[in-house]
Write a structure and sequence with these properties.
alpha/beta; Molybdopterin biosynthesis moea protein, domain 2; 26 strands; six-stranded mixed beta sheet; elongated; Molybdopterin biosynthesis moeA protein, domain 3
């Protein structure tokens, strides 16, 4: 069995910066009904097709009145008005409100012609066909004027903005039924290794179930990607190269898992340079040192370690930022927050960046790492730290930045 040593290991953060500089955001566009566009990134400037509201309407339950009729109203000397109509949200009063008249209105009801204010229900007392008002109201009180929410032609959303529930509501209110969005990034997952069998298969002695496709696929889908999981490819450089070339044609990003180190059957370091420009092989990060990348036809090809914790932790700090850029996400998936280490950790290897998964509790971070081959290291993790190693232990209480994994990522 032949093995070779890694060369000079690259800086993980420099590698991430380089990959981010090479990412080409998705340019494909599709048109979706509003009900299917939540969370997508808008690809067009959308303006209101009509004014909202299209007519003056009540913003409170009460009585539509002529404000000048109530100028002298007070608790001691209420003004009595005759109720000539009762209007719900869908009802118009065909006539015009005259002196001494009022119309009962529900919230959202069209204001009768002649009325310029609403006296709210709590400031009145109904007596049959009459209502007493106990105070004055100013013109326009509790009335939403035409176009007050949005005038016709107002810009509601621009390219690059996320379609939040509120923005989708504005588009619908403004008369739009469909909206153009940027397509989701397409990511292919290509595991390789003779020992791998697909989920649902009973492994023989020496075999293991392939589940990096499950963990990575879940992470990438939750981060907004369309994912194509490929069945495990045998340890054959020709088959690996053929499969990688195939999926590169139809995907924006390709992640190959396993076979990324320096062992006799680690073929990715041989295959990647035949497909594209090799960017790096080996990073000074633990877990996750055997990571490599290439660029082919303007697309990125990443090789991640086969060990599940190494693979998924690399996906957190390296792949998620790439997917954010690729998918034009306006805000990053991960955000740093300070916390204190709940127990000593280490010693950390000198010259390496160590990824430490943690569980968070009221400002304290408890490491959950159990080993790079143990997926349970990440099961309870709610975030991770990137700690520089100096060959020493990190003491309890040390203040460190934690990159939180928001639900449902963590």
């Amino acid at each position: 069995m032949e093995m070779t040593a890694f060369g000079r290991l690259g800086s993980p953060l420099a590698a991430r910066r380089r990959l981010l500089s090479l990412v080409r955001p998705v340019t494909r566009v599709e048109t979706l009904p509003l009900g299917e566009a939540a969370g997508r990134i808008c690809a067009e400037t959308v303006r209101a097709l009509e004014a909202v509201p299209a007519f003056p309407r009540a913003s409170w339950d009460g009585y539509a009145v002529r404000s000048r009729d109530l100028r002298a109203a007070s608790r001691r000397a209420p003004v009595t008005l005759r109720v000539v109509a009762e209007l719900h949200a869908e009802e118009f009063y065909p006539g015009q409100l005259g002196p001494g008249q009022a119309a009962a209105v529900a919230t959202g009801a069209p204001m009768p012609r002649g009325a310029d204010a609403v006296v709210i229900f709590e400031e009145t007392r109904r007596e049959g066909a009459w209502v007493r008002a106990f105070g004055p109201v100013s013109p326009g009180y509790a009335v939403v004027e035409p176009g007050e929410d949005m005038p016709r032609g107002e810009r509601l959303v621009i390219p690059g903005q996320a379609l939040t529930p509120a923005r989708l509501g504005a588009l619908g209110a403004g008369g739009r039924l469909r909206v153009k969005v940027f397509a989701r990034p397409r990511v292919a997952l290509v595991p390789n290794g003779n020992e791998l069998v697909p989920p649902g298969t009973t492994p023989r002695r020496g075999q293991i179930r392939e589940f990096n496709n499950v963990t990575l696929g879940a992470l990438l889908r939750l981060a907004g990607a369309e994912v194509t999981p490929v069945p495990p490819v045998p340890d054959d450089p020709r088959q690996i190269e053929a499969k990688l070339r195939e999926v590169l044609r139809s995907h924006d990003l390709v992640l190959a898992t396993g076979g990324s180190s320096v062992g006799e059957r680690d073929y990715l370091p041989q295959v990647f340079p035949r497909i594209g420009q090799m960017l790096f092989h080996g990073l000074s990060v633990r877990p996750g040192k055997p990571t490599l990348a290439a660029r082919a036809g303007g697309k990125l090809l990443l090789g991640l370690p086969g060990h599940p914790t190494s693979c998924l932790s690399n996906a957190f700090w390296l792949v998620l930022p790439l997917l954010d850029r690729l998918g034009r996400r306006p805000r990053p998936s991960l955000r740093a927050t300070p916390a204190r280490l709940a127990r000593p950790y280490g010693p950390l290897p000198r010259g390496f960046l160590t990824v430490v998964p943690v569980r968070l509790d009221r400002g304290w971070a408890t490491p959950t790492f159990r080993g790079s081959s143990a997926i349970t290291s990440l099961v309870g993790a709610e975030g991770f730290a990137l700690l520089s190693g100096r060959g020493q232990r990190v003491p309890r209480g040390e203040r460190i930045p934690i990159w939180e994994l928001p639900f449902p990522l963590g």
